[in-house]
Every structure is written in structure tokens, then in C-alpha cells.
Amino acid sequence: MIWPPHRRESREWNPRHRQGSRADRTLESVDVSIPPMIGSLHCDLVGAVARVHEEAVISVARLEAGFGEHLVPLSDFLLRSESVASSKIEHIDAGWRAFGKALAGGKANEEAKSQLAAVKALIVMVDAAGGGPITLETLLSAHRLLMAPDYYTARDSGKVRDVQHWVGGSDYTPIDALYVPPPPELVDDLMADLVEFAKRTDLPILAQAAIAHAQFESIHPFIDGNGRIGRALISAILRRRGLTRRVTVPLAPVMLADTRRYFDQLTRYRAGDADEFVEYVARAAIVSSEAAQDSARALAELPSYWRDIARPRSNSADEKIIDALLDMPIFSADTAQRITGTTDASTYRALGRLTAAGVLEVLSESKRNQIWAATGVLAELDALTTTIGRRTTEHP
Fold this sequence. Notes:
Keywords: ATP-binding, Nucleotide-binding. About 60% of the residues lie in helices and about 5% in strands. It has 17 helices and five strands. The strands form two sheets. The chain has a three-stranded antiparallel beta sheet with strand order 3-5-4. It has a two-stranded antiparallel sheet with strand order 1-2. Helix 5 (about 110-130) packs antiparallel against helix 6 and helix 8 (about 185-200) packs antiparallel against helix 9. The mean pLDDT is about 95.
């Protein structure tokens, strides 16, 4: 397809405080990158890109349609996988167990809180897209949720930036930056144009999602959180266009597996090579959808495995917990008691037996707020990310 490259313009640099190296202190101008307006552009896919795009759409549709009764637990599983991997790209990694404690309301570290905030932001964006067009307020609301755990970043959340910033390079000026996005006075118009592009229904679905993501990252509308919100935008567009209704395609693990290639692809988009970025996202969708189908099959087999190793009595508290584990693989004692409908003592005995059998593991030893997780589900979360990573590096 014919796609306009970003323009480069030299802008005067007037820092409030002169800090850093001599080069930082004497910097007088900076080259900024200005994305094109894309709201009315067309994505006419041809040749190999069109074929890969079609294959990707089929793979996502197969994932969505293929797992009937298991879609509810699978949808939560994939959404968490996508959000956590997206956070890892930004070097935020609490680990699944710490994240699980945060998810169940336990005491959590800052990284776990940040990962949980990414899950909430993705949910807000996808749910909003399922009910209507994606708007700027959708993005701002998600950004407020994402930034909420940190007092300092929360102060700048939910609004587009009003300062010039940059990616990489010096801490003090854009000197030697990897990328300098457009100046703040252009951000409002560029975001309005991006929202118009995201609302359209006449474009190839995955191509629209891929380009919207690359354009969002190029605008870099926020002080922080651009990567996670921009990747969530892909899932939101897939939901808005009806390609997904319940599942979230875990694309971020592909990007995490080879971040250099991911960032290189964004750079090529800025040079006008939209076709290659569309193909990159389409291939990522194929890899992740096929791996997610493998995880769905593994999850479907877990309840039978749990019964084999725990041998619960019919209608016992143990059996009721096992029956609920796919829907609620991480939970507190209060939740367990609601599931079993029995006394504290009976519930704790059931939890003890299931832990001893290897069905559950304790994530938090705190007597005031113990948290358990289904061991097999945590293992599969790790397995999905590992599988996607391996397949990504084997078939770049």
C-alpha cells in the first residue's frame, strides 16, 4: 500500500534548566518526527501481505469460535497474559505469583500493582470498544487506570502531554534520542485524526489495528504508559470490529520475545512502510492464536487431572473448589468459603488437602489474607508465554 512517511522538522529547544553534559546544556534545536494524518487513508493490501492478513484473521476467528464452554476462563487467562507481557516490554515484571497476590487483593509490590493496573486498563478499553466506537475518552480513562498506582505518574494521567518528550538518549534533552515524537501543540489534532481512523469499519481489520497501534506509538500522546495503552488499542479495535467477542489475542508475548524487531518495525512504519508492520502484526496474531489454542486444550484437561490427583468426595468442599478453579484460579479464603458454602474450618481443611495434593499452591502466607492459586493454571500461563516466545524466534 502507499503510505506517507513521517516528516522531520527542526524545532527550537529552550530547556527550563540547563543540566547534563555540555552537549545537553548547549543544545539549541531538536529534530522532531511528525506523523501524517491518516483518518481518511485506505489500506489496500495486496500480494503476500494480503495472504498473511487473511490467514491471521482465520487464526483469530478459529481461536474465538473453537472453545465453546471453555471460552469464559480462557478469555480471562489470555487477557492477563497479554497485559502482563505488555508490562514486561516496559521492564515491569513482578512474576505471576506476586501478580496473583495483587489480583486477589493481597499485599503486593509496586510492580505487581502496575501489572494489575495494566489488566484493568485493557479491560476498560476492550469493554468500551465492544459497546461502541473507540473515543479519546476511552483512551484517557484507560490511561488514568494504568497510572493510578503511582502518585507521581497519576498526576499526569488521563490527559495528553503538554511538553516535548523523547525516547532513549539523555535524561535531560532529546540529544541522541532513539525517537522524538511530535511537539505537544500537534498532539490534539493527531489524536483526533487517529480516533477517526480507529472508528472506521471499511478497512481490513488487523491492518487497521496494526496501523492504529503504530500511529499511536508515533504520536506518543502521554508522558508515560504509551506502550501499554497503544498495545491495548490493538485488542480494542479487534473487539470493535467483531473479530473477537470474548478472547484477547496475546500479541504482546510475540513483541516481548524480540523487542528489537518490534521497535525496528515501528521505525520502518515511520519511514512509510506500513505493509511490513501490518505483516508483522498479522504473523504475530497467527503465532499467538495457535499457541493460545494449545493453552485452551491444556486448560480444558486440568479439571480431570485435578480430580485424579485429589480424588475428592462427591459434593464435597474439595470438589466444589476444583469445579470453580478454571473460572477463578486465584482466590482468597473468603472467596473459597463462598464457593464451598460451608464453614471456615471445613473450607480450610479442603484447601489444605488440595494444596497437599498439588492442585493448589499458597501465594501468600499471611494469616489475615491467605491467597491460593491453581498450580496448573500458573504453569500454563508461563507455558503460553514461553511457547509464543520460542515459536517467534524459530520462525521470525
